[in-house]
Sequence to fold (232 residues):
Amino acid sequence: QITLKESGPTLVKPTQTLTLTCTFSGFSLSTSGMGVGWIRQPPGKALEWLALIYWDDDKRYSPSLKSRLTITKDTSNNQVVLTMTNMDPVDTATYFCAHTGRGAVAGQYYYYMDVWGKGTTVTVSS
Amino acid sequence: DIQMTQSPSSLSASVGDRVTITCRASQSISTYLNWYQQKPGQAPKLLIYAASSLQSGVPSRFSGSGSGTDFTLTISSLQPEDFATYYCQQSYSARSFGQGTKLEIK
Fold:
């Protein structure tokens, strides 16, 4: 059974750097096809995809936030860390991490986020 | 960036109704399209991947179709537990979500 849990500060000040940790179990990030992504959701608003790291250390970032984001993995401790620099009140949101798996359809691999953590709420305020 | 646009933004329907939600990509994404359901206070749940493949455990009243830039999610007969917000998401280039469709009880 795959589970993920987000952890990090609940309150950060403007201009500070946010560091969030996703601790997971039930899979290994050294297994081919596996990935972990981060997604956020401001209060009452839509989901926004942030970043993704694959088993082979391939990393993908939201183009609009790429300059502020860094995603890394610690395979031995089953953790993925997301850092976001220069936090602003508009970054106030619930931050989710999610397992990225893949399915084969007609000989092609398709990736999807099939197991999510419960999310952690981050408020940016002075 | 690939922009995803859903319509409608909100929808009122009754139990037993057939409902269709549309998602349009700003460029062709083949069938790299997933659908999620989110209920208040919960994390999203994967319903459909690869545009039309039903995720394990998801009821068969949910179905997806489309390719290229235009996609649909259909719920054949609405159940009380289906009232939620639905999001499409592309996995062709990086990732991006639509703005969501809130399905409410009429």
